[in-house]
Structure prediction request, 83 residues.
Amino acid sequence: MNTDKKLDLLFWDCHSSINIEYSTSTELYTIAVTEFEIDQENSTKHETNLKESSVTEIYVSASEIDSLINALQYIRQQPEEVI
Prediction:
C-alpha cells in the first residue's frame, strides 16, 4: 500500500497519537490511534521517554472521512453570541 498523504497528531498530555494516512492505490484512509506509556527503563529525571502500549487501526472510505469531519465540525461549534 502506497501512502500518498499522512497526518500525525501527538497529544503529549494524554500520551496518545492519531495518525491518518491516505492511499490512492486502495482509495482508503487508515486511522490509527496509538496509546503510549512512560518507558521507565529509558526515562531519566530530566527526560521522559514513551513507548507504544497499543495501536488500533481502522480503514475508512472517503465518504466516512467526510462524515467524521462533519461530526467534528458539529461538536466543535461554539455557541452563538447573545445579542
